[in-house]
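User: I've been trying to design a sequence by hand for this structure and keep getting stuck. Would you show me what you'd pick, starting by listing the structure so we're on the same page?

Assistant: Good idea, let's start from the same input. This is the structure you sent:
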């Protein structure tokens, strides 16, 4: 009744054992798979979910997927490519009709209400004029029926909470500057959750101005609490813009 459970990361021995078992189950070359894993960011591969996703993605995920955001972006791209064949639809149709509405609903259910709801409802999809059954074919969510007495409630549950977080970040990426900044300011109020913000930082890497805006907003968080957000943002990007480095070092010289 008073137990605390923690999920530890894989040790090197456990990682090697997982790769061997994965290769055996999926009839792959354990040596080739192990070489790919060793070239991947080792710190991330100690995370069981990340390691599983990396192995499942196959050789299409190369050394360029050197961060969690890039790995999830690869999954996102693979999702619509698979859906193209399965649904006989174009990339633009899948993204505009199904993925972008799903990203919006992911953000709203996770952050807008601060309720952290991990599922969507039929009313959610009606509100954005989106076909829930089609979205299930694309991926990311599955339809579930919750039976309570004589009542049956339909829910659309994310296959993993990190998919919801990534899709919420994709929604922020899709927004224009004014809307994105307004939402970011709300997200930078307590209680802090750097997970989605880290995904946003990773997605905005190619837009230096937008990345600087995000980090500048995070630095406005009062007191030392700002570092709960800023440090994960730094870890989420391949490199920090030079202009931002000077500001960060002025705020915290120990980052040198």
């Amino acid at each position: 009744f008073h137990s605390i459970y923690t999920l530890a990361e894989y040790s090197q021995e456990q990682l090697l054992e997982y790769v061997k078992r994965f290769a055996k189950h999926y009839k792959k070359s354990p040596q080739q798979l192990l070489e790919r894993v060793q070239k991947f960011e080792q710190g991330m591969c100690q995370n069981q979910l990340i390691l599983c996703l990396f192995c499942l993605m196959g050789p299409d995920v190369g050394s360029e997927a050197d961060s969690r955001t890039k790995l999830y972006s690869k999954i996102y791209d693979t999702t619509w490519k698979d859906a193209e064949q399965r649904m006989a639809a174009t990339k633009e149709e899948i993204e505009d009709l199904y993925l972008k509405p799903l990203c919006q609903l992911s953000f709203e259910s996770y952050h807008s209400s601060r309720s952290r709801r991990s599922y969507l409802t039929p009313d959610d999809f009606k509100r954005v004029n989106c076909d829930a059954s089609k979205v299930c074919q694309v991926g990311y969510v599955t339809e579930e029926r919750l039976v309570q007495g004589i009542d049956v409630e339909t829910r659309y549950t994310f296959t993993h909470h990190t998919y919801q977080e990534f899709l919420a970040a994709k929604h922020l990426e899709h927004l224009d500057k004014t809307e994105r900044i307004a939402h970011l300011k709300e997200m930078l109020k307590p209680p802090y959750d750097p997970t989605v913000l880290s995904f946003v930082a990773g997605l905005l890497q190619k837009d230096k101005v937008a990345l600087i805006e995000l980090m500048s907003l995070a630095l406005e968080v009062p007191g030392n609490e700002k570092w709960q957000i800023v440090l994960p943002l730094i870890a989420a990007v391949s490199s920090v813009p030079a202009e931002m480095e000077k500001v960060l070092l002025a705020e915290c010289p120990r980052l040198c």
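That's my pick for every position. To get oriented when you compare it with your attempt: The radius of gyration is 20 Å. The chain has a mean pLDDT of 85.
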